[in-house]
């Protein structure tokens, strides 16, 4: 498999900080993979993805994106490969209307107007927001704004989509609509690589691989199943347990011992149904 | 309190005037304001008021919107007119007390000031009621474009203007949230004397500024990640189109100008 992101021995310290925010980080992401980065506040997750996009000026280590080594000269080339969606829906909405906002990246890239109109419409249809094209952002919900932000990224057709806690300020319904857009994208022909930072473990469970960060270091990586089964790791990094794990623990206290490995919500539900049959 | 602060008071609609090109509307509104000063005799005033009446009719908006638009400024107009009335010497003196006097010239000039102000403000209200703030920003950009010759950053200014307009409702919302939070902590915004009220504004403004700076930082990061490198080589999604209706509007106002000049000499 081709590596689309390679990070090698990356370190970074904010000018006024007393300890490094990123401490000798190395990892790789395969093209087409969905990787989630988890870790508590201040563990360096956001700084890490900002470094990938050249949004912070790191001094040591290398970042290579789609074959291009990140440097002050190549930063705009690298940014063409990466589309980022940030946490706050309001603070990344540049355009005065939905369509204007989706067009912003295309305008920056100098895309001719007729092509731009088509791509804006296609992207808005992909996130089911075309009927709101002329709306102003103040008349949209948080989930709708984040879908518009995603449309702005989709219109640019980048090979990598980075979500920096993009769903953390949304209500459960808004979060679900954003996630379903991502799942839909994953099923398309040119499935983008997704790198998502999240606190929501049920969201992280959708990824193929998890990177766990603590104190500026990458302390563990593995499939969601492996990570969620490692209760010690989850507790030592201050991460919440996924709902299904919590439920298994409570059931164990009642004398119902669920399988030891991590189960998704659906798997646990199935197990419970079958348990009823065998009792 | 904040709901009344809506910028421009734009009322969406589909009238002929709503659909005019914002460039045309901006230029024509300015042109009308200039020729409003050509009014001399009662015929010219009748013509101008008939014209503005026609324009108001064409907006398709209820007359009450215009009354509300002019309302806050009426006292300023009346005040200016009264000053003109009391301090203009010349002609027949009807009444005087110290330096104050009412003269025939004073009555004429103050009436002229009152009527011209009314024309100007009504036209400005027509512009803001029928043109979305974003369209006005587009129009201003197009009209400023010649300034690029002297290296004035027209595109950047236009983007700044459009981002500022886009953040008005966001910041109003935030101000409302902060006000509610401060009210919950016992701050009174609507009571007490002037000094007390001004003091109450401080705990509102400081968090609002801190928040706005944080938002600006986030927005700059988002814009950079989306490839914004200043104004070079950008294309435009939104373009203005000049229609026949815009040309007709220009012709109409030129005809108005000619008729006005003719009536002046009657």
From TrEMBL, chain A:
Q: Which domain of life is it from?
A: Bacteria
Chief localization class?
Answer: membrane
Is NAD found in the keyword set? Answer: no
The ABC transporter domain covers: 5-240
Claim: RNA-binding is one of the keywords in the record: no
Q: Which Gene3D superfamilies does UniProt cross-reference here?
A: P-loop containing nucleotide triphosphate hydrolases (3.40.50.300)
What do the Gene Ontology cellular component annotations say?
Answer: ATP-binding cassette (ABC) transporter complex
Q: What does the UniProt keyword field contain?
A: ATP-binding, Cell membrane, Membrane, Nucleotide-binding, Translocase, Transport
Q: Quote the InterPro entries the UniProt record gives.
A: AAA+_ATPase, ABC_transporter-like_ATP-bd, ABC_transporter-like_CS, ABC_transpr_CbiO/EcfA_su, ECF_ABC_transporter_ATP-bd, EcfA_1, P-loop_NTPase
Provide the topology term for how it sits in the membrane: Peripheral membrane protein
What is an example of a GO molecular function annotated in this UniProt entry? ATP binding
Q: Where does the protein end up?
A: Cell membrane
Family, as annotated: Belongs to the ABC transporter superfamily.
Q: What is this protein called?
A: CbiO protein
Q: Which organism is it from?
A: Furfurilactobacillus rossiae DSM 15814
TrEMBL record, chain B:
Q: Could you state a single Gene Ontology molecular function term? A: ATP binding
InterPro entries found in the cross-reference section? ABC/ECF_trnsptr_transmembrane, EcfT
Topological category with respect to the lipid bilayer: Multi-pass membrane protein
Q: A Gene Ontology CC term for this entry?
A: plasma membrane
The alphabetized UniProt keywords are: ATP-binding, Cell membrane, Membrane, Nucleotide-binding, Transmembrane, Transmembrane helix, Transport
Locations listed in the record: Cell membrane
Chain ranges passing through the membrane: 26-43, 74-95, 115-137, 149-168, 242-263
- List, alphabetically, the Pfam families matched: CbiQ
Source organism's superkingdom? Bacteria
On subunit structure and binding partners, the annotation says: Forms a stable energy-coupling factor (ECF) transporter complex composed of 2 membrane-embedded substrate-binding proteins (S component), 2 ATP-binding proteins (A component) and 2 transmembrane proteins (T component).
PANTHER family associated with the record: PROTEIN ABCI12, CHLOROPLASTIC
- Report the sequence similarity comment from the record: Belongs to the energy-coupling factor EcfT family.
Summary of the function given for this chain in its UniProt record: Transmembrane (T) component of an energy-coupling factor (ECF) ABC-transporter complex. Unlike classic ABC transporters this ECF transporter provides the energy necessary to transport a number of different substrates.
Write the protein's name: Energy-coupling factor transporter transmembrane protein EcfT
Origin species: Furfurilactobacillus rossiae
């Amino acid at each position: 498999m081709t590596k689309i992101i390679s990070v090698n021995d990356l370190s970074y310290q904010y000018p006024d900080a007393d300890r490094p925010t990123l401490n000798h980080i190395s990892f790789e992401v395969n093209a087409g993979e969905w990787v989630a980065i988890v870790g508590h506040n201040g563990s360096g997750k956001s700084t890490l993805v900002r470094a990938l996009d050249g949004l912070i000026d790191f001094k040591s280590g290398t970042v290579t994106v789609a074959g291009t080594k990140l440097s002050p000269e190549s930063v705009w080339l690298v940014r063409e490969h990466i589309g980022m969606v940030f946490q706050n829906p309001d603070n990344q909405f540049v355009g005065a209307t939905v369509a204007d906002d989706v067009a912003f990246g295309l305008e920056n890239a100098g895309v001719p107007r007729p092509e731009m109109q088509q791509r804006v419409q296609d992207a808005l249809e992909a996130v089911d927001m075309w009927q709101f094209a002329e709306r102003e952002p103040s008349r949209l919900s948080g989930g709708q704004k984040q879908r518009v932000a995603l449309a702005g990224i989709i219109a640019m057709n980048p090979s990598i989509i980075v979500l920096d806690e993009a769903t953390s300020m949304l209500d459960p319904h808004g979060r679900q609509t954003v996630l379903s857009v991502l799942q839909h994208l994953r099923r398309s022909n040119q499935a983008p690589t997704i790198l998502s930072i999240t606190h929501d473990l049920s969201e992280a469970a959708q990824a193929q691989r998890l990177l766990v960060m603590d104190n500026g270091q990458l302390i563990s990586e593995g499939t969601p199943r492996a990570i969620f089964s490692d209760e010690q790791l989850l507790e030592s990094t201050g991460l919440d347990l996924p709902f299904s794990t919590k439920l298994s623990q409570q059931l164990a206290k009642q004398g119902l011992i669920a399988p030891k490995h991590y189960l998704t919500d659906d798997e646990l539900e199935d197990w419970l149904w079958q348990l009823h049959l065998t009792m | 309190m904040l709901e009344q602060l809506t910028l421009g008071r734009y009322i969406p609609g589909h009238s002929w005037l709503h659909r005019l090109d914002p460039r045309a509307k901006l230029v024509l509104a300015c042109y009308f304001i200039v020729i409003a000063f050509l009014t001399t005799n009662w015929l010219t005033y009748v013509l101008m008021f008939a014209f503005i009446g026609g324009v108001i009719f064409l907006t398709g908006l209820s007359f009450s919107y215009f009354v509300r638009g002019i309302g806050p400024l009426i006292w300023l107009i009346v005040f200016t007119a009264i000053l003109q009335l009391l301090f203009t010497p010349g002609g027949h003196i009807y009444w005087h007390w110290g330096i104050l006097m009412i003269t025939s010239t004073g009555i004429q000039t103050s009436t002229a000031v009152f009527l011209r102000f009314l024309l100007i403000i009504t036209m400005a209200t027509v512009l803001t009621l029928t043109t979305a703030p974003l369209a006005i920003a587009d129009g201003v950009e197009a009209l400023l474009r010649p300034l690029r010759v002297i290296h004035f950053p027209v595109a950047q200014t236009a983007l700044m203007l459009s981002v500022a307009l886009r953040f008005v409702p966001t910041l109003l919302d935030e101000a409302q949230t902060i006000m509610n939070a401060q009210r919950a902590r016992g701050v009174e915004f609507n009571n007490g004397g002037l000094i007390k009220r001004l003091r109450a504004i401080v705990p509102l403004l400081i968090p609002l500024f801190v928040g706005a700076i944080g938002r600006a930082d986030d927005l700059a990061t988002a814009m950079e990640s989306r490839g914004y490198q200043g104004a070079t080589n950008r294309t435009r999604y939104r373009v203005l189109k000049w229609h026949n209706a815009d040309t007709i509007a220009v012709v109409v106002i030129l005809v108005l100008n000619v008729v006005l000049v003719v009536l002046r000499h009657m």
